[in-house]
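Record 1 of the preview.
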Amino acid sequence: MAYKITHVSRAQEIRFPTQAAAEHYADRLGGGLENWQVREAGAEPPTAPAAEAPQHG
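->
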């Protein structure tokens, strides 16, 4: 299964054949794993959590 990494602050995305390859690149060559989101290729990008509406009661 293919994986891709997406930079958290730039519009940059790179595809890899395995999750290990994606994490290795991000960690060693991409400035650190904390700067990237790793996910399966074709998966929807993670979304920010929705703010909960205040409950009236």
